[in-house]
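User: If only I could read backbone structure tokens as easily as an amino acid sequence. Underneath my words sits a plain record pairing an amino acid chain with its backbone structure tokens. This is the protein in question:
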Amino acid sequence: MKLVNGGGRPHLEEKWVKPQNGVLKCNIDVVLFTGQRKVGCGAVVRDSEGMVVAAMCGQVGRVADPSMAELLSLRELLSWVKREGWKEMEFEIDAQMVFLAVTGVQKDESIFGVVVGDCRQLLKDVSSSSMRFVR
């Protein structure tokens, strides 16, 4: 991300950055249709050349809370990555609260915390993985 001055008004310019050689990057996004309480999720996996290796999309049931929707979607996508057997992964997610919960160390006994624990375990199951928050 870099600061660009266009027409006298600075703005942030975001650009996708290739992962290191031999590493796959998974960009994750979620949409919540609040009126219907439906959640859609999707991911694109690219290699170090930026070529699409795989993509997936799906629905994650009926959830009203945006953070829980993001978290359940992340768990579904991490399960997909595990089933595919990919080991060297970078994950990019735009849900800051979920990112902080999953990458943090606090223990939470709520339902949210249980799903956070599932996501943490799935990340460990991918032998070499990292996660970044992106806008």
